[in-house]
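User: Is it possible to get a 3D structure for a protein together with its bound compound? The compound here is S-adenosylmethionine. I've pasted both below.
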Amino acid sequence: MLPRVLEPEAMNTPDEAVEYDSMDHAAVNARFVADFLAGHGPCRGGEILDLGTGTARIPIALCQADPNARVLATDLSGPMLDLAHRNIAAAELAARIRTFHGDAKELTLPNGAFEAVISNSITHHIPDPAPVVCEIVRLVAPGGTVFVRDLARPSDLDQIDQLLQTYAGSESAPARALFEASLRAALTLDEFRALVRGVGLVDAGACVTQTSDRHWTWLWRRPD
Ligand SMILES: C[S@@+](CC[C@H](N)C(=O)[O-])C[C@H]1O[C@@H](n2cnc3c(N)ncnc32)[C@H](O)[C@@H]1O
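Assistant: Yes, that's possible. Here is the predicted structure of the complex:
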């Protein structure tokens, strides 16, 4: 098993934000939105919380896919949120996507306030994501959905090489380096299941599953 090698937490410089936003994540984002809607069902008009929204590409794709979606898009990085505002305005979705500057480990938002809590690709940035898991469970409404996805750390260097070739072969050198660093910083499926069990969800083995050759997904409905 490869050891976990941490990345910096927030993507805090304007250059990092621009580099991230220039990468083409459209197919991954479309899959995220389709899988979320398949698990949650059509949006019911409540607000959906996106943790670590980056440049808000997923909230935009979600609002374009479902006319009832409304999103609170949060991130720890000011430069990421600056680009998020630009992207939301360009998509003419400012009436349905609000932003919030905050740390997913401790958010000043009310208990059970969100129809769903979604998040893509942030746990690998966070040295100990246990407080984020607690916040997710605290913030989702009864009957609401948790949909969290991230990379799964590969077990060896050959697997990293294979994923780099398959998914970043035609990307720029900085984009390839970022993908490799993210794979090395990711939690394994078992490590993330242990965090979910740690907040008392005994069915972690069933609700956190491997959903592609490089991702795990936590899909959970909070009981009413
Ligand atoms: C790889 S990007 C993913 C962005 C977006 N979810 C997407 O899929 O395009 C990770 C994001 O998580 C943010 N992040 C990292 N740690 C965070 C924290 N503790 N609270 C909120 N956001 C955080 C980073 O600033 C960055 O914007």
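The chain has a mean pLDDT of 96. Residues 9-11, 25, 51-54, 57-58, 75-77, 80, 103-105, 120-122, 125-126 surround S-adenosylmethionine (CB under 6 Å).
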